[in-house]
Amino acid sequence: MKLVVGLAGASGSIYAARFLKALSHLPGETYLIVSPPSLRIFSEEYETKVSKPEEILEFIRSKFGLGTEHQFHIRNFHDIGADIASGSNTWDAMVVVPCSMKTVASITAGLTENLIERAADVSLKERRRLIVVPRETPYNRIHLRNLLSLDEAGGIILPASPGFYQMPKTLDDLGDFIAGRIFNLLGIDASLFPKWEG
Ligand SMILES: Cc1cc2nc3c(=O)[nH]c(=O)nc-3n(C[C@H](O)[C@H](O)[C@H](O)COP(=O)(O)O)c2cc1C
Question: Flavoprotein domain: from which residue to which, for each copy (predicted)?
């Protein structure tokens, strides 16, 4: 599987960290784009200091371990001329986790001012799967309208709303719930949480 994964500046770094950790154990490759606000929020939420995407991967490696099956290619957030800015390069799906309301708004408006927004725009125009994990609370009507527009344009909205019926014991369990739901939408059974048995 070939993916594009963007980290935008919303709370919920744990969702990205648990998703990337699980992804690293699967065969395939990922183009990774990290926004500057996302670096800041990751630093605050994990009480660390990351100033570039490589340091996010290094942090995940030291905290959770990273598999070697998956290749990560880092792309510059500001490089709107990168390879994945063009639909002539193919990928199976794009995931934005977590996703800020600003990035939801920009994708919906077709702004393409940075590489996350551009790759998301390409995903939609090329009819490739785009999974967006928005996080804000409460939502105002602008957020709600933008989320609906994104759904209407073909995006899939996967709210950062973990379930509690699986009786999570740790924050990582909550992160894995959302990461597992992303994998479900990618058609991968990553077994990150027990299936509900009725
Ligand atoms: C600590 C912190 C937490 C934030 N949490 C959220 C959030 O949960 N949702 C959101 O939409 N924006 C949040 N923001 C604001 C965004 O980071 C801001 O709108 C930024 O411009 C988003 O840019 P980006 O999507 O390009 O990363 C947060 C900012 C900070 C500093």
Answer: 1-185
